[in-house]
Structures are given as structure tokens and as C-alpha cells.
Write a structure and sequence with these properties.
This protein has about 190 residues and is an alpha/beta fold. It contains nine helices and five strands. The longest helix has 15 residues. Bound molecules: adenosine-5'-diphosphate.
Length: about 190
């Protein structure tokens, strides 16, 4: 069983690459962004709690995010490998994830960080906004999301680097080329 964290700023292409990875390797996909969007769309009590925070582009508090993640892990006891997309976004989340994995005698084996320059990210999201219907793709909210990334989430990288799990892949270029570069990392070990 191999567990993977796909890491990167908003607009890095995590969703696109996740789909391809799932098709090839059969991971169970856990996207905290998708889970939160499901809750807000279905107006669950969790959804009502996080809607405003998400729409503003801010991160949902760790206590809520980690509890939701744990619930999702518990729903998939027989998974033959998880792909985490959009989680962890803080060092506390990364530590909680390691702890959950350890409790199941498992671990995070790979962290793949998609590297995309900030200017390109802003251009991509501006384009996505035209079709996505996502309230948080509006310009000022996008700024907040990018700031949250560079203020909080980026600190997760040294956490994984420290114990030698970090692999950086260039996230600019053709989708299939980026995908091949990710597969090369996974297939190497
Ligand atoms: P993006 O496209 O910006 O990478 P996601 O779809 O992963 O965004 O997440 C959308 C929003 O959901 C975030 O801006 C944040 O409000 C919330 N969210 C998702 N994952 C997390 C997380 N791990 N911790 C805190 N908030 C999160």
C-alpha cells in the first residue's frame, strides 16, 4: 500500500493530476476541498459552519478539517492507497496525518509538490473562474487563497523535506508530461 500527498498552491493542477493518478494506480482520492464543497452544497451542519470561511478564501480551522479527514479515512478501511489532495495545508494537519497513518501501521510514502510560479497561478485561476462557478475564484478571494498558501501552507514543505519524503515536480507544461514526471517518481521506488 502506497499513500501519496499531492501538494501545491491553488491552481497548480492537483485536481487534474489526481484524476490521472487514480485511473492509473487506483488510489482512494481524498480532496478536502471537494469534501468541503460537498458539505456546503448539501447544506450540512459542517457545510453551514465553513461556507463563509471558504468563500472568503481563508483556510478552514484545523480542528474542523482534521476531524473531517479522520472520518473519511475511517470510511475506507480497505483502501489500497490514499491520494491526499489539498491536505495537509498546515504543519498541524501534516502531523495529524502522520499520526493517523501510524495508528493504521502505515505512513505517507510520497509527497509530490507541483511547482508553479505565482504569476502563472494567478493567470490559470483567472481563466478557471470563467467556467468554475466557484465563489472563491473571484480576484480578491484568490489573493487571500494565494496568501494563505504562501503564509501557512508552504511551511509544510520543510516538514516533509526533513524526513526525506519530498519530491518536487515542475508543474508548468503539458499535462501529460507533468503526469509522466509524477509517475517516474512513484515508479522509481
Ligand atoms: P484550491 O483550488 O485553492 O487548491 P481546494 O479546492 O483544495 O482549493 O479548497 C478550497 C477551499 O476549501 C480552501 O480555500 C479552504 O477554504 C478549504 N480547504 C480545503 N482543504 C483545506 C485544508 N486542508 N485546510 C483548511 N482549509 C481547507
Amino acid at each position: 500500500m502506497v499513500n501519496l500527498v499531492l501538494f501545491g498552491p491553488p491552481g497548480a493542477g492537483k485536481g487534474t493530476q489526481s484524476e490521472k493518478l487514480i485511473e492509473k494506480y487506483g488510489f482512494v482520492h481524498i480532496s478536502t476541498g471537494d469534501l468541503f464543497r460537498w458539505h456546503t452544497k448539501n447544506e450540512t451542519s459542517l457545510g453551514k459552519k465553513v461556507k463563509e470561511i471558504m468563500d472568503s478564501g481563508a483556510l478552514v480551522p484545523d480542528s474542523i478539517t482534521i476531524a473531517m479527514l479522520k472520518e473519511e479515512l475511517d470510511k475506507n478501511p480497505d483502501a489500497n492507497g490514499f491520494l491526499f489532495d489539498g491536505f495537509p495545508r498546515t504543519v498541524d494537519q501534516a502531523q495529524a496525518l502522520d499520526q493517523f497513518m501510524k495508528e493504521n501501521n502505515s505512513g505517507i510514502h510520497f509527497v509530490i509538490a507541483l511547482d508553479v510560479p505565482e504569476k502563472e497561478l494567478r493567470e490559470r485561476i483567472a481563466k478557471r473562474k470563467l467556467t468554475s462557478n466557484r465563489a472563491d475564484d473571484e480576484v480578491e478571494k484568490l489573493n487571500k487563497r494565494v496568501n494563505e498558501y504562501f503564509g501557512k501552507t508552504i511551511h509544510v514543505l520543510p516538514y516533509y523535506k526533513k524526513n526525506d519524503r519530498l519530491n518536487t515536480v515542475n508543474g508548468v507544461g503539458e499535462i501529460d508530461k507533468i503526469f509522466s514526471a509524477i509517475c517516474a517518481v512513484l515508479d522509481k521506488k
